[in-house]
């Protein structure tokens, strides 16, 4: 297989670590060019900052550290404002003037398309239509990414996701032994991410679990803050063998392939 250029488009720093880090490390190790693009710097994320620290700068620094660990050849931030954690980014008055969810989708797609064209990208990774768990910036990544691929003529678009079926079963089982916070509703995951039958790629990244874990660790600011345990902090406490088992698969949906397709590598079944 000739070297390809794969662009991974994410909403915030640390999203790449959670969803696609293993795939990125794998492609880079195989000699492909991997480019990481984020829409925002994630400056409205929860974090416990030290005196004189500024979250935007800290998160971009962590992003570059993560990208280096994964073998990325280029990192870009489109420069939009983080829309925040609340549904739909909260009220317009609460959001920054440049919030990503308020951005003109065509204009944002043009910015991403310019990178795709400059890189002569063969593949673009975005999110599924639900934006995974529904974060407004993630939903916007799907819309903007789809349009950018159309503008640039990028031949393959993969939607990074999670197989929600075993996830829901696991959460329901965990709920019998662990009391989730009041705001956590397992039922919301029944419509999050993607159903098993729609997933076309199940990529085994256990060989790159060390790089994936290091990528997560690079985003240290996102392991602190808030009134309860942060997701990233909990993930990093998982013992190595269990980590490889739980986080050793990354899932994607490629819409130009029929449902039920089962591929194990992001570059399988390349368009003719």
How is this structure best summarized?
It comes from Nonomuraea guangzhouensis. With 272 residues, this protein is of the alpha/beta class.
Helix content: 25-40%
- Lateral strand order in the biggest sheet: 3-2-1-4-5-7-6
Question: How do the helices and strands follow one another from N- to C-terminus?
Answer: EHHEHEHEHHEHEHHHE
Low-confidence stretches at least 5 residues in length (pLDDT < 50)? 87-91
The beta-strand count equals 7
Output mean pLDDT.
Answer: 87
Radius of gyration: 18 Å
What is the CATH topology?
Answer: Rossmann fold
Query: How many structural domains are formed by the residues?
Result: 1
Distance from first to last alpha carbon? 13 Å
Largest sheet: 7 strands, mixed
CATH architecture: 3-Layer(aba) Sandwich
Structural class: alpha/beta
Overall 3D form:
globular
CATH superfamily: LmbE-like
Number of distinct helices: 10
GO molecular function: hydrolase activity
Protein name: PIG-L deacetylase family protein
Pfam family, one: PIG-L
Organism: Nonomuraea guangzhouensis
């Amino acid at each position: 297989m000739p070297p390809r250029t794969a662009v991974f488009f994410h909403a915030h720093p640390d999203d790449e670590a959670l969803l696609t880090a293993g795939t990125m490390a794998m492609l880079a190790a195989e000699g492909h060019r991997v480019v990481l693009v984020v829409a925002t710097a994630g400056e409205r994320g929860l974090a416990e900052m030290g005196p004189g620290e500024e979250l935007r700068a800290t998160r971009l620094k962590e992003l570059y550290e993560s990208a280096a660990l994964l073998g990325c050849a280029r990192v870009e931030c489109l420069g939009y404002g983080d829309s925040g954690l609340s549904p739909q980014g909260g009220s317009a008055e609460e959001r920054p003037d440049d919030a990503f969810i308020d951005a003109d989708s065509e204009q944002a797609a043009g910015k991403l398309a310019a990178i795709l064209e400059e890189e002569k990208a063969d593949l673009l990774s975005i999110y599924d239509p639900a934006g995974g768990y529904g974060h407004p910036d993630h939903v916007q990544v799907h819309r903007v990414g789809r349009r950018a691929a159309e503008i640039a003529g990028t031949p393959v678009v993969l939607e990074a996701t999670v197989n929600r079926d075993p996830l829901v079963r696991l959460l329901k089982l965990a709920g019998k032994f662990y009391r989730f916070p009041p705001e956590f509703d397992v039922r919301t995951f029944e419509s999050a991410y993607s159903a098993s039958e729609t997933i076309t790629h199940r990529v085994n990244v256990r060989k790159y679990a060390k790089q994936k874990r290091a990528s997560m660790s690079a985003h240290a600011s996102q392991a602190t803050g808030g009134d309860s345990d942060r997701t990233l902090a909990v993930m990093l406490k998982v013992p190595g063998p269990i980590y490889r088992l739980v986080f050793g698969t990354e899932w994607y949906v490629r819409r130009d392939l029929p449902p039920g397709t089962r591929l194990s590598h992001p570059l399988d079944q390349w368009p003719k």
